Structure formats: C-alpha cells, structure tokens
Amino acid sequence: MPRTPRTRRVIGSTRVRLRRCAGLVVLALAWLPQSGSAQGLLRDSGIEHGLDILAQPLLVAAGLPANRTRVLVVNDLSLNAFVAGYDTVFINAGLILKVDNAAELQAVISHELAHIANGHIIQRGVNFQNSRTAAGVGILLGIATGLAAGNPSLGIGLAAGGVSTAQRAFLTHTRAEEASADKSGMRFLARAGIDPKAMAGVLNHFAGQEALMPALQDPYAVSHPLTRDRLRAVESTAAALSPRDGETAEVEYWFDRLQAKLSAYLRSPAYTLQRLSPEDMSDAAQIERVLAYFKTPDMAAARKPMDALLEAHPNDPYLHELSGWIEIESGNVAPAIAAYRRAVELAPNDSLILAGFGRALLANGQPGTDAEALTVLKRARNREAFSAGLLRDLAIAYAKADQPGMASLATAERYALSGKLADAGLHARRAIGQLPVGSPGWAQAEDLIRAANAATTKRR
Fold this sequence. Notes:
mainly alpha; Zincin-like; Serine Threonine Protein Phosphatase 5, Tetratricopeptide repeat; 24 helices
C-alpha cells in the first residue's frame, strides 16, 4: 500500500505513443480535478492479485486477453465501476467493500467486461486505448470524481453545455448498452461456473436510486442507468441460465483477503478490531489485525499475526510484501529489505513488489544498496505504467547514481502523471540539456516539452 494514495495518470513510455496522444494530453488538462488528491488509484500487489484471480475465468468466458486485462482499484468510497480501453477495469474501493461475496464482485467485473466485449467502447467519441496515457486515465478519473461528488463540473473544467455531453460520452451508458452488458455479463458468469443471479444481487444494492435526485444517487446509478424493468430483466435472464460447475474455494479465499485488506487499510483501527471476532483466525482476519495494529501504531502487536501468516504460508509473496511494507513504513529498514527480497524471489515479475523493494533499498542509504535499488526500480518501471511513487524513487536512484538527466526525466514523467504538465515541462527541459541528443530519454523529454507547451497554449 502507498503511504498516501496518489492519482496515477499515465503517459506512454515511447516517443511514438506520446506523439500519438499529444492532443489528448492537452485535452486532459481541462478535465482533471481541481485537487490532485481528489481521486486516484490505490495500488497493492496482494489486492490486485486477488482481483486477477476473480477476473481470470470471466476473461476466458468473454474471449478477452486474460494476460493483458487488469482490474484496478480507485481510491474512492463511493460506489462505481467503469472500463478504460480494452484492457482496464476500474472499480471504486467503496463498491468492493459493499458487495456481499465474491460472486457479486465477479458480477461487477463481468458486466464491465461485457461493455468491452460488446464493442461499446468503440461506439464512443474517444479512443480509450489512450487510457494508458496521462490523458486517458486523467479524463476518466476526472469525470469519475465529478460523478462521485454528484457534480460533474467538479471533475470537468469545460464550459457549460460540454459537461453533460462529455459525461455521457465517457462514462454514462445507455439503457440499451446496459441491457446488453447485463445479458452478456450473466452469460460470462454462467460459463465461468458462477451463479448469474449475483448480477441481480449487485443491482439490489442500488434499488430505489432512480427515485432520488441525481446529486443524491450513487455514482454507479448515474453512470449505469437503473430501472425496475432492468432488474426484472436481469432476474428473468438469470433464472434461465444454468451455471457450469466451477471451483469457488480459491476465489472466495482471495475475495476475503482483498476485501479484508482494503477495509483495514481504509478504515480506522478501532473499527477493524471491534468487528473482528477473537476466534476468527482466518488469513483474512489476520491481515486485518496486522494493518489495524500497524495503524494504531503497535508494531509489536502487528508482528504477531504477521509472523503467524508467514509461518503458515512461507511461499506467499504478497504476505512477505505486506511484512516489508509495514516495516519500511515504521522505519525498520533491515527487516523491510529482507522481507521484500524474499517477496521478489517468489514473484520476480511483480512490478509493485519490485517498486517496494527498490524503495526499501534506497532507504538503507548505502552505495551498494543504492546501486541495487536503481537496477530494481528500472525493472519495475519496465513493467509498470501507473505508479508516480515509483517514478519518484527512480529519480532519487538516478540522482544518487550521478545521472541527473535521467533523474530530471523521471521527475518530469511523475509530474505528467499527476496532470502537472507545466512542472513536467520544466523538468523535461532540464533533462533535454543533460541527455545525449537523439537518445530515447532525450526524445521522451522533447515530447513532454511539446505536450506542456501545447497545454499552456490551450489554457490561454
């Protein structure tokens, strides 16, 4: 988990992609929330692994690329979910905490995947393949911020009249699309061995929303029009579908873990500990105890359930990562490095675990670990496009390695991901004066400068 969840908006890593989306980068500047902390992505390797476990059978059932499609958590306690491009589903933390079981969360994922499989993205005015750029993610999260606040203009700094059109174009689905996604999503559920009635369970969480004023409705009800007719149609379709036999034990286990971890991270320690039964020694409950005691803070108490988890699951990289995270956040560098090193051994290609390991190595402040940190962080960067924190640490590692040009470039990218293109342009200009002309880094800095200049012109 990051110490302070930040908005992660992504810019392409190659010059070709930056040129292709330069216009959208400028457009995003008008759409970003006024406050950079208004909304962002909450990144955690264990939670995202659990979401991947839940999504995999649905991706197979939908005929979508299971190895490229990911589910990410939006750091927002309101209820909403939406898709970006053909490979990313965003689900608000609030909706994950609201659903009652794994099947309901899978129903949410299945419905959003149906929007992709049914071509609803293609029918919209913007190519969501750009969602991996600062523009694409910034636009989507900016609009979602406005919807969560019940005021689309909060997240969209466009002139009146353009706001409602843009909102409809990007997130709000038509009733026809919703009906289509409901039916397809339930078919995906049945093929994956999941009871399609779970879709009706999700909709029942939003029952009566259409009777409320729009400003009082959950964002999900705004972006996914809800009617009694729609619920009846879902119940009728679900009754006609017979799910195949599916294995549920692993899915339920990871659902419990990810929901518990998310709850304990976002809620107060008192709330977490009060609702836990002393007799509950499940892995999910132990993870909640670890985080609750860590936040109290009481590291001695946190280590007891942490040690019990590691003893029971010595080869679980996500538990070693959790151990490393609570140690580094508590200023205990040596045990953090040891825990992260073991996590990397078990999951060598997990970008978030690599990023955490790199941060722990940097905290050690020794030449040997600084050099190792740069190597590790570069590996993480090659696999991760969504983390501003990773770019911050990478800039520090480059600076310690006496590579000021690359340090400035990493800083410029970090500002671009946060929607601060003026600052990005400033650091990109520093980078371009220090990097070899024509090198990949030089070209990337040049494109950042171009995007920053275009944004300044657009705002005048």
